[in-house]
Automatic annotation (TrEMBL):
Organism: Sphaeroforma arctica JP610
The protein's name in its UniProt record: RNA-binding protein PNO1
Localization per record: Nucleus, Nucleolus
Keywords on record: Nucleus, RNA-binding
One annotated Gene Ontology cellular component of this protein: nucleolus
Length: 227
């Protein structure tokens, strides 16, 4: 019985050695295939994809002023076709035969949406360069139902005197915050957005800014130690 098991093991070892030798010889004789990268149009079976981003009325003038800074990265770096449709008041994006990045169209749309929400062009450009950036939007009334002067005071606590509180939240959490009426837009990574959102919610609920600053700094220090 033991002899049969030994013979079977020897046979399996010889077969494995022969197969390995055959694989090595075939890999030496056959060159590895080289695949050229496909363009976005080829991946979509030759059809061009489109995106349309609505331009709010209050962002039309900033769009005209910053059009060159918006147009250049989309065309030169993302290889997209861009035009402004004045009849529909929308910015239209389309892939071209030079578009190689499959996610270029979605990134370009996210970049334009961030600008329409009120972010600076330089801040919104980070959406084109980095993968782990997001935009979180919520309403003050989602945290606490406020009306009239109570709502105005809550927004004032978030902004601070001369925007000081908002700047502090942005610097500590490494995010960008836009306050549009009762809407709050936060641009940053997932973890940083969560810290900034918690700080803003505490301000809406009535916490003093000093206490919120302390909580933010402690959370930011723990996050830096973790990484």
């Amino acid at each position: 019985m033991d002899v049969d098991m030994v013979n079977e093991a020897d046979i399996l070892a010889d077969m494995k050695a022969q197969m390995d030798q055959a694989d090595n010889e075939s890999s030496m004789n056959v060159d590895a295939p080289v695949f050229t990268p496909l363009s976005a149009i080829e991946l979509n079976d030759g059809e061009k994809s489109e995106r349309r981003v609505q331009v709010p009325t209050h962002r039309m003038t900033p769009l005209k002023q910053q059009w060159l800074k918006i147009y250049t990265p989309l065309v030169e770096h993302m290889k997209l076709q861009v035009r402004m449709n004045l009849h529909t008041r929308k910015v239209e994006l389309k892939t071209s035969e030079f578009t190689t990045d499959v996610g270029a169209l979605q990134r370009g749309a996210d970049f334009l949406k961030a600008f329409m929400l009120g972010f600076d062009v330089d801040d919104a450009l980070a959406l084109l360069r980095l993968d782990d950036l997001f935009i979180d939007t919520f309403d003050v009334n989602d945290v606490k139902m406020l009306k009239g002067d109570h709502l105005s005071r809550a927004i004032g606590r978030i902004a601070g005197k001369g925007g000081r509180t908002k700047f502090t939240i942005e610097n500590v959490t490494r995010t960008r915050v836009v306050i549009a009426d009762s809407k709050i837009h936060i641009l940053g990574s997932f973890r940083n957005i969560r810290v900034a959102r918690n700080a803003i919610c505490q301000l809406i609920l009535g916490s003093p800014p000093g206490k919120v600053y302390g909580n933010m700094r402690s959370v930011a220090s723990r996050m830096s130690e973790r990484f």
